[in-house]
Write a structure and sequence with these properties.
The structure is a homodimer of 199-residue chains.
Chain A (H helix, E strand, L loop, with lengths): L5 H19 L6 H8 L3 H7 L3 H21 L6 H18 L1 H9 L10 H21 L5 H23 L8 H20 L6
Helix pairs in contact in A: 1-2, 1-3, 1-4, 1-6, 4-6, 4-7, 5-6, 5-7, 5-8, 5-9, 7-8, 8-9
Chain lengths: 199, 199
């Protein structure tokens, strides 16, 4: 066999890392195991990615692509329908890809470095899916406030999904969790459509 | 020195485990290090606690006590004031005790066992703090529905706090995070006080 091109090696390592995360979680991602599985020297990993963090971010970016595709598939409609449907699509993706999804939130850069700008831009694209229905719900809201609100809404939905799937607040059958999420997002939509004056 | 009584050993191990979690997180909790720090034999740990999981749960129960004390300190008032104040008190506790607080959600029993009933009862007491203002907000709601809603509300607030403190949805100065939480809980209070008819 010829020596694999760098792009092929990157792709092979990416898919191996994703499989490893799916099987055992982000904490199980180790350079030695990955290179053994891919059949390259340990040092070759560092010709393909600067470090293991960069590889983990590449897996997370692929997860964000898949998550975005799941949100793209939600049918268009008024915000009172679309926001709960987006929340349920998020739950469905998380439930179907537990470890890959958890890795999005578990990953920390080594030495407390910030994630690179491209990754933050990638995340921002995800939040656009929430900003669009918010713009319809609250046409008078400025774009910066809407961007912040989209992130809060995402975080709230994420909290219900994360603690629900882990059964951290009590037993949580799948249909119960869907019901909880629906009630929460309905209340948010109602409350956001009719903001009460701040005191 | 005389041989420590079992209750003393339990307490010493509990405090050492809490310190270890505060310093390095739940994943750093190791039997060998703890017993070395406490100055007892490795086997003595298992006379004090059935296993490391039981010790982690004991630390978490202490954290829940402290968290409950923080929520108890929130002044009484109408639900539209009390619910946001409880959310901010939760944020303050989490921000001040990051790793100890994270351990509440990171801990998994070995072999996928369920946490013991006493731990679930302990958790339920925490949610009572949310159920009380909800009862004032929605007097007609049954107690089972209220218990579920309290858990959803808690989870939503938790999501904003957890992703906010970790800066997972973007840069998040402390005052920004407080603002996000306030907007979210205000919207929930408004929406829950005036539920829209289900279609």
């Amino acid at each position: 066999m010829g020596r694999p091109r760098r792009a092929d090696l990157r792709q092979a390592l990416l898919l191996a890392a994703e499989r490893r995360i799916d099987e055992a979680g982000l904490a199980a991602l180790k350079a030695r195991e990955l290179t053994r599985e891919v059949g390259c020297a340990l040092g070759a990993l560092y010709t393909a990615y600067p470090d293991l963090d960069a590889l983990a971010l590449a897996v997370n970016a692929r997860t964000l692509d898949a998550l975005e595709a799941a949100l793209d598939a939600v049918p268009d409609g008024p915000p009172a329908d679309r926001l709960p449907a987006l929340a349920l699509a998020y739950l469905d993706y998380a439930a179907a890809h537990r470890r890959r999804w958890a890795a999005l939130f578990e990953h920390r850069m080594a030495d407390g470095r910030a994630a690179p700008d491209w990754y933050h831009d990638r995340l921002a694209r995800l939040f656009c899916h929430v900003e669009a229905p918010l713009a319809a719900l609250r046409p008078g809201m400025g774009s910066a406030a809407r961007a912040r609100l989209a992130r809060s809404l995402f975080s709230a939905v994420h909290g219900v999904v994360a603690l629900g799937l882990d059964e951290k607040v009590g037993p949580m059958p799948a249909t119960t969790l869907r019901g909880h999420l629906r009630v929460l997002v309905d209340a948010l939509v109602t409350g956001l459509a009719r903001p009460r004056p701040r005191r």
